[in-house]
# Entry
Amino acid sequence: MATDERSLREALGQFLGSPPDSSGMTVITIAESFLRRLRTATGSLSGLDDAAASKIGDAAAEAVVAEAAWSAAIGERYDTSQVCAMLSISRQALSKRQHSSTLIGLKDERTTWFPAWQFDKAARIVRPVVADVVAAFEAHLGDADPVIIAAWATTPQHDKLRGSTPAAWITGNHDHAAAVDAARQAALRLAQ
# Structure
């Protein structure tokens, strides 16, 4: 490791508290990568005043934190372009599937994210159980919020799925009826 990178790691470690735990090491890795990328853009940023530079820095940090929060909340996910390529369909066809409740997508400012557990990537299909899970939520909640379904899918279900998350259960090719029943029970609890 170059001396300047080692001193950067040490400075970041001191900033976070020494010695950093695993989450601190993750932050250090993110910061190092960010600073390497920033180093290549210094020419185009040189004309910014402090307020503009601060605004860009805040937006960059928010983007990193939001990305990490999405990952923690819904697990692995694909964006619209990735799903269209995987399924060999247009954006319009993907939107139609989403509106017909055969899969869920979560919109952010730039794209729609689709939780990966919904797809059999090798077969290049949406798992048939997804429509049944969405229907179970909609039967008790009306137009179910996809965020609720995505959060449910990453939450261990002790009663029906033996402590597994629905996402792991579904991708592990377990009994899909149990996943649908777990969805039904979760929706009933939310409807009360």
